[in-house]
Structures are given as structure tokens and as C-alpha cells.
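OP here, attaching both records as promised.
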Amino acid sequence: MLAWGERNYLATGQFSYTTTTKFAAVWFNRGVGETPAAESAGGSPVVDLLVFLADHLGMLVTGFVPALAQLMNPARWYLHRYLDALGLKTASIGVPYSEIGLAGLAPVEIAYMAFNIAVSVIILAMFVYFFIQLLRFRPVRVDAATPLLLLVLIYLVVQKGIWGTFTEGSGPRYAMSIYPFLVYFAALSASRIFRPGAAR
């Protein structure tokens, strides 16, 4: 990202670590129901973004954890795609959960959601266990994994926490890219917990 940011600076005269930084503040304003302010000439999109976050700090604090919880969103949309491909139709396909509730779901959807939520909870719990053990300086395998862990934490804070607080529909859509890494750290925790003779 630093190399790309340098390229953008040389090309535009402004620091922007991605091509979407310029529009992040605009999307966030729309997410909170505010009209985006017009860009000032020569203004910095990074500064605009930081100013927005400072102005909406209370919303960020209260919405951060619920945004992270979107990692456990069971994503019924994916199941609907599978059912369509198999030629299986249910009345709840394409209908938001907020409109039909649990009683309006087909049994296959309830089973799908329960399985996804249970697996997500286990993976996240094992990941949190790994991180807690790291903070307690317990002898876990962190040598080569530490840089990767830091990148995962940055993703969780920026993409899931901050971005998820101010935009809609950022749950399962952006969660899929991080799950392989969460599974990796969960597996490290499991290998320690279930290793014969391992101290907890």
C-alpha cells in the first residue's frame, strides 16, 4: 500500500493509499444520512476522512463492536444462490430477514444459518484466544505469524470496524476475504489446546 500510495502521490500530488480514499468520506457521509460536503480545491482526502471520523467519534465507538459482529452474519444470500442453482425454490428466497423473521424461514435456511453462526463463533473465539495468549506472553507460535496477525488486526479495525460502522451491507461481503486468516490463527490455538500434555 505504501508503494501504491507513493505512485498516487507522484501522479496526483496528493497522498492516497488507495484509489477509493478520495471517496471514503463521501460514502461515510451518505451512510450517516448527511449530505457530503463539496471537495475543497487542493484538499486532502485523508484529512477529510480524519475530520469526518473525529466529528462522528461517538457513532464510531457505539457502532464498532456491532460492525465487527457482522463477521458472524450467516449471509442467506449465498444460500439462495445455491438453491436457485439446484432448482430448489422456497418462499423466503430474496426476502430480507427483517421482513419475515425466524418463523418465515424454511428449515434448510434455519439449519444453514445455525451452522454458519456456530462455525463463526468457534473460529472467532479461537482467534481471540490466540491473541490473548500472545498478549500474556504465553509460548505460542508467533514468530512468523506475528506480521500476519498485525495485518489481520488492521483489517478488522479499518475494514470491519470503521468501514462497517458507516456503510451498509459490509458484513458477509467483506468478511470472506479475512476468514482464511482467522481460520489459520484458530488452528494454531487449537493445536496448542488439544496437544497431548499441553498446559492451558
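Record two, same layout:
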Amino acid sequence: MGPFCFALINTHIEAQEYPEALALLEEFDNEGASWMRANQGITNGLRALAHLGSGNPDIAQAYLKKMLEDRTLSTERLIFISNELQEMNGDDQAYQILIGAQKRDPENPLPLIELVSLELNTNNKYDTLKPHLEKLMTLNAPPSDLLRRAYTLLGSDRYIYNPDHQALLKQIESTLEKEKRREQEAQQQPESDVAA
């Protein structure tokens, strides 16, 4: 029952039918649905999305805070809510969730990758791209598309005279070169195996 109801509520949110989504949440809550009590994190996330869409950012913020306090909510669910928020122009709230997800699950690269993507989409609005990019480049296989986007942004006129960003550009270049060599070696490996 729970997954179907969550999907139904989310369908209303994606269709921008926020009053309907809130009405369903209220109805299920009044029924005392056990699946809602067992999944408070995702329920609070859906409430936040519906309230933000309804033009109630303060109420949405309160539910997001509750959601982040729920340690049972998976990193993947947090990223899902963050992506939904970005679709609704809730970049600030999405950023807050990704920062929380990264702190909660520091060994998981997904929140960091999503965070860098959001920062690039917002032209480094939060001025935290540099440390996150540096951390991204320590991953075994940092996403080359994100690094190329970062290189384009940091090479723009906005950053051209900033010495810190010049050093970061060189670091990105070096990382992209390493990734290119690694990909080439991976493509050549099957050929050498066949030859052997």
C-alpha cells in the first residue's frame, strides 16, 4: 500500500497539483496509516515539496528540517528529493539537502557529484564549488562531463583574474588528462587480451 500511495502523491507533485498532494497526505495521516509512520522521512520530504509548490516556503523548510533529522532516510531518497526541488526552482533547499547528505554519508560519492552539478547549474551561487571540485577530483573516476563543465565555468571572464581558480583549472586539466589515458588503456585492454 505504502509505495503505491507515495507514487500517487508524487504524481500529483510532478503534475504541479500541490493541493491534491497535500490533501492526500492529510487523508492518509488522518487514517493513521502505519506505512506513513514508518516512513516519516519520505513523508516529510513530500510535504516539503507540496508546500514549496503551493507557495509556502517557510512550512516547506520546516518539513525539510524534519526530513534531514531522520537518519533512516537513505542517501538515494535525499538525492531524489533534492532533484525534485531543483525542478521546482528550489535550488537553495536542494543545496541544503545535498550538504546534509554528504555529511551524513561521506564515503558515498553521489551527494558530492550531485552537489557539484547543482553548483555548476547555479554558476557557483554558493561559492563552495572549489572545495567540492577538489574533493571530486580525488575520486577513482571523477565524472569527466562535470569536470569539463567546471573548466568552462572557471575559465570564463568572471574568474579569469582569480589566481586560485587558475590553479584549479590546471588541476582539472591534469585530472581530465589522467581520465582520458585511463579510458584509452581500458579500451586497449580487451584487444591485448584477445591477442594473447
